[in-house]
Specification:
Helix content is 4%, strand content 53%. The chain is mostly beta strands. The mean pLDDT is 88.
Length: 766
């Protein structure tokens, strides 16, 4: 019998010396172990010579030969970053994967770009991702959503693997997300409902927070900015400018078997519109403990609180005074958001099994409502030989909404069971298949799906995908994903008014379904010191029972007197039938490194053709008509732009770096006709005249100015004063362009900002 010997050691980043947790140690196709939270591994009782391979996504694989009885039993392995920028991601399959091997489109945002652009909340930076737009807080990926006054979302927001969608409005609270602790932001494009559920109909935005490494991480930023006067006569403030200021603080540290994290943000914006302002403060804390006695067992507790107040601007007084609200009043708001998370994970390394139990309590409140959302998930994950990964899980979610005036009191529940297999049956081939069964209720209404001719309350959701490596660095992919979204409490029951607008409930609103198909190819390249990726995708998204807010008359009694009829004009959520969005997207990223020079680029172009395939010109009269919309475009979905272009360039030389971001958006073709027509057009008696009362005075006369395409450019420059201190100067909207993402919402003029960042340099703590 041969000599038996243990092999142990650490796996570290060759550039900065940080240990890498989760690195796979294998022999051939057999996974032997993986590194723990400190980057340490141990293989016992090796009796024969082995070729050991160390793998970590985003890094080049390292092979070494180990001979028991002759070689050292303790080794430190140094991994170099991958030559084609193949980042590690987790959102697609809920395990570490190389981005090139995914079956779906995904974009990644890194914390350096977020810090350099002084991003104060997440929606400001995700708009830099090709194909992604945000209108009044409503996220849309490749034209999947229009504009719905913040109620409901087809894009699911995840924070560390768990949904972060409010229980009442079903929206994303962008200011609540800890942007200062970002490890990586992953954006999946297309339906991802099998693993993540109802809100992922159009895609996912996943914010993964930093974890503690060998050295503590501390960063503090203080900034101040001021708005320039706009080009037109919109300026209402006396003196020179309106100001914005704030700071962020983050500290993350490992002490023995515990990881601690603390972060916070304060933000104040005096606003560029009359009476509008925002003041908020947020604190986030977390503690993660890895058991000393039970190998592979860890528990994490984290929580956050946000207090936010201010005034919300909805509609202008007139196009010529677009920064002054109608009736010179705003809707005041005061909100508190809080969450408490518990995550327990148990990794059984010998059997390559991971068990996870996740729980999130998410509380949201404002002046007129409060919601309590409880989320529970039990997940089982099994890996075989690093080539087969099986995920199975069960989810329970309950939401209680309490509101005397806005929504009423409602109770919603959701139960789901999912299974997904990610496999590599051949060296070049990766396959994904998944199925989810979902049951949801809101009060007495539940999900419904027809099985074999009968209505059942269980809805199935399917996902299929494949990825094949064509040649070195080139991967072709194809995917099909279904989605399902149950209406939010706000969409069904909201009853309120905003200025001259009324918003009505629709208790009969039905769930919407969708499916997404995609073909794509990704090519990595490396030419000397230039490395990068090119990606091309063709996609097709379809919805049935699509939900949108529409303006109409909501009363069936023809005998109402005029003064009572006026009370029934307004907006509400409606099921508008089918939608069909076809398009293409091309994106690229690259890095050039040569001596003291570093140049990075990222960006892409997206084209969509969003139509209503069952459009009927006789009954579908809620959108625009000629001369505001060409006859052949009457079936165009509302609040979408056909062309989007995004680009970012960063040039660094020694201690100075400068960056330039550009965003292009073609004109919005179609909107609700009530933003152009007088409010009570059908009543006649003078209400149809051009000077009759309208929701947005002046928009009709300035239609060409509103509907034009626009470019927005941002500039930044950072100077590293010392190893710990950095000074930055930033300009947003360099050209001072006047533009609107939706009617009545003229966006901010040019802004100048100064930012000072302190980031001390630590030595290793272990």
């Amino acid at each position: 019998m041969g000599v038996s010997q243990d092999l142990s050691g650490f796996v570290v980043d060759a550039l900065n010396g940080d240990t890498l947790r989760g690195a796979i140690v294998k022999a051939g196709d057999v996974k032997l172990t993986s590194t723990d939270h400190k980057g340490y591994f141990l293989i016992r009782d090796i009796t024969t010579p082995l070729t050991i391979e160390i793998c970590y996504a985003g890094y080049q694989n390292l092979k070494t030969f180990f001979r028991p009885g002759q070689d050292s039993s303790y080794v430190t392995y140094y991994l170099n970053p991958d030559a084609v920028l193949d980042e590690v991601v987790v959102s697609a399959g809920r395990f570490d994967q190389k981005r090139s091997e995914l079956t779906v489109s995904m974009d990644i945002l890194k914390p350096d770009l977020i810090q350099q652009k002084n991003t104060t909340q997440l929606d400001q930076i995700v708009t830099q991702v090709p194909g992604v737009t945000v209108q009044d807080g409503q996220a849309s990926i490749r034209g999947g959503s229009g504009f719905s006054y913040g109620a409901g979302s087809r894009v699911l927001m995840l924070l560390d693997d768990m949904p972060m969608i409010s229980g009442d409005a079903g929206d994303i609270k962008w200011a609540f997300l800890p942007i200062e602790t970002v490890e990586q932001i992953e954006v999946i494009k297309g339906a991802a409902s099998v693993l993540y559920g109802s809100g992922a109909l159009n895609g996912i935005i996943h914010l993964r927070t930093r974890y503690a490494r060998d050295k503590p991480f501390t960063q503090c930023s203080v900034f101040m900015g001021s708005y320039d006067a706009p080009r037109s006569t919109y300026k209402w403030w006396p003196g020179t400018s309106q100001f914005q200021r704030g700071f962020t603080l983050t500290h993350i540290q490992r002490i023995k078997n515990s990881d601690f994290s603390f972060s916070g943000q304060y933000f104040y914006d005096a606003g560029y519109r009359l009476f509008e302002f925002e003041e908020r403060g947020r604190i986030n804390v977390s503690w993660r403990y890895t058991s000393k006695h039970i190998k592979g067992l860890s528990h994490k507790i984290s929580g956050a609180v946000l207090q936010n107040k201010g005034g919300i601007f909805y509609l202008w007084q007139h196009y010529d005074s677009a920064y002054i609200p109608q009736n010179r009043t705003l809707q005041a708001f005061y909100s508190i958001n809080a969450n408490l998370d518990n995550v327990t994970e148990y990794l059984i390394s010998a059997h390559h099994i991971k068990l996870s139990l996740r729980n999130r309590y998410y509380y949201t409140s404002n002046l007129s409502s409060a919601s309590h959302l409880d989320y529970y998930e039990l997940q089982f994950q099994k890996q075989w030989h690093s080539k087969w990964v099986f995920n199975s899980g069960a989810i329970l979610m309950q939401n209680r909404t309490q509101s005397l005036s806005l929504y009423g009191n409602h109770l919603g529940k959701q139960f789901a069971f999912y299974n997904q297999m990610d496999a590599s049956p051949l060296n070049r081939l990766h396959v994904t298949a998944g199925l989810r069964l979902e049951y949801a209720t809101l009060d007495s209404v539940s999900t419904e799906h027809h099985w074999f001719g009968q209505a059942r309350p269980i809805v199935p959701v399917l996902r299929l995908g494949t990825n094949y490596q064509l040649w070195n660095g080139a991967h072709a992919r194809a995917s099909y994903g279904q989605g399902y979204r149950f209406p939010s409490t706000a969409e069904k029951f909201v009853n309120t008014g905003i200025s001259v607008l009324k918003i009505f409930p629709n208790p009969n609103l039905q769930a919407e379904r969708g499916e997404n198909m995609e073909l794509g190819i990704k090519q990595g390249f490396a030419f000397g010191t230039i490395k990068g990726q090119l990606d091309l995708a063709a996609f097709w998204t379809r919805y049935s029972n699509m939900i949108e807010f529409v303006f109409n008359y909501y009363n069936t009694n023809p005998n109402l007197p005029l003064n009572e009829k006026l009370n029934y004009y307004g907006f509400r959520s409606e099921n508008l039938g089918k939608s069909d969005i076809k398009g293409i997207e091309a994106s690229a990223s690259s890095v050039y490194q040569n001596g003291n020079w570093n140049i990075q680029t990222m960006g892409g172009y997206t084209f969509i053709n969003p139509i209503k395939p069952d459009f009927n010109p006789v009954s579908d009269t809620l959108g625009l008509a000629p001369p505001f919309l060409d006859e052949q475009l009457l079936n165009t979905l509302k609040y979408r732009s056909k062309h989007l272009f995004k680009w970012d360039l960063q040039i660094a030389y020694k201690k100075i770096s400068c960056g330039w971001s550009s965003r292009y958006q073609s004109r919005i073709l179609n909107i609700d006709n009530r933003f152009i027509k007088p409010v009570f057009y059908e009543l006649g008696n003078g209400f149809e005249a051009d000077d009759a009362p309208s929701i947005l005075p002046g928009l009709k006369a300035n239609w060409n100015a509103f509907s034009k395409a626009f470019w927005i450019h941002d500039f930044r420059c950072n100077v590293q004063l010392t190893p710990a201190w950095t000074l930055a100067y930033l300009i947003s909207n360099v050209s001072n362009t006047e533009y609107q993402n939706r009617p009545g919402d003229m966006r901010a003029p040019r802004m100048h900002q100064i930012q000072i960042t302190f980031k001390p340099v630590y030595k290793k703590t272990n």
